[in-house]
Amino acid sequence: MVFRRLAALSAALAFLGLAGAAHAQDYPSRTVKIVVAFPAGGPTDFVARVLADKLKGALGQSVIIENKPGANAAIGAESVAKSDPDGYTLFFTTAGAVVINPHMRANLPYDPIKDFAPITLVVNTMEVLVVKSDTPMKSATDLVAFAKSRPDGIAMASTGVGSPPHLALELFKSSSGANVLHVPYRGAAPAVTDVVGGQVHAMFADLPVLMPQIKGGTLRPIGVGSKRRASVLPDVPTLDEQGIKDVYADNWYALFAPAKTPAPVIAKLNAAVNAVLKDPETARKLIEAGADPAAGTPEQLAEFLKSELERWGKVVKEKNIKEGS
């Protein structure tokens, strides 16, 4: 009886393996959808659309973007987690949805480890500190001095509670000793608008968010929240270089599929994305926007996800960051 059960189990596993391989050979046979949990026009949406445009050629099928913003990316994440694991609905996300949200919400409707299959890291980007270009502040130390000279300190925007820009702000506040009022916005666009308009004094944001305003001269970059300078802003020193230590808030964007998506499908998607990121035109477009291509394997993304969950969990706990804070 035991041998019969083992034989049946082996046959079932073999069948599933063959079915997965057959599915991968046919995949994709229709349009692939990438869910972006942020509004159209933002940095995540921009990178996703650059990727989707090139994936059409690599996969031989249309690749469309569906924007599902809300709840600090949880709405989009949940929708993909509950989708069929067939490779036709994918999740393109920043760090926030998968390594910060889990530490802030006890009732999160998805598990970043159990509910998603990693495909690949796509880009890395930096958090850059900016002020309105016509202010007298030329450096991060100028901003700190200005904050300390004011009884009420300064107001700094973020793209939302628990976002990488918010965590960069909290690290900056602790390291510099500046009196900072956190002003969370629903997304990057309104936050940038209010910095340019002078309603708030400064903000951290993903570099792709800020590049148009930096190039246009309406925002001045005064510090980089990373261990190295940004390649597209070589003259802007890191916060470390300015004596404001340990403000490391690098963000990243990655591609996931629902858990239980067949391994051969994941492999095909991984190969396609890696090929796209090695395309010189695509790489140039991303780098000029402030996003550094960072392809890899599903296994590397899985390990990176675990390490980032641990890293940001410590920051969220230490700074006591909660929804609505």
Could you explain the architecture of this structure?
This protein is α/β, with parallel strands linked by helices and 325 residues long. It has 2 domains: 17-124 and 252-319, Bordetella uptake gene, domain 1 (D-Maltodextrin-Binding Protein, domain 2), CATH 3.40.190.150; 127-242, Periplasmic binding protein-like II (D-Maltodextrin-Binding Protein, domain 2, 3-Layer(aba) Sandwich), CATH 3.40.190.10. 46% of the residues lie in helices and 19% in strands. It is built from 11 helices and 11 strands. It has helices at 2-26, 43-59, 74-81, 95-104, 140-149, 164-176, 188-197, 207-216, 263-277, 280-288, 298-319; strands at 32-36, 63-67, 89-94, 116-125, 127-132, 154-158, 180-184, 202-206, 219-224, 251-258, 292-293. The strands form 2 sheets. The chain has a 6-stranded mixed sheet with strand order 2-1-3-10-4-11, with helices on both faces. Strand 1 (32-36), helix 2 and strand 2 (63-67) form a beta-alpha-beta unit. Helix 1 (2-26) runs parallel beside helix 9 (263-277). The radius of gyration is 21 Å and the shape is globular.
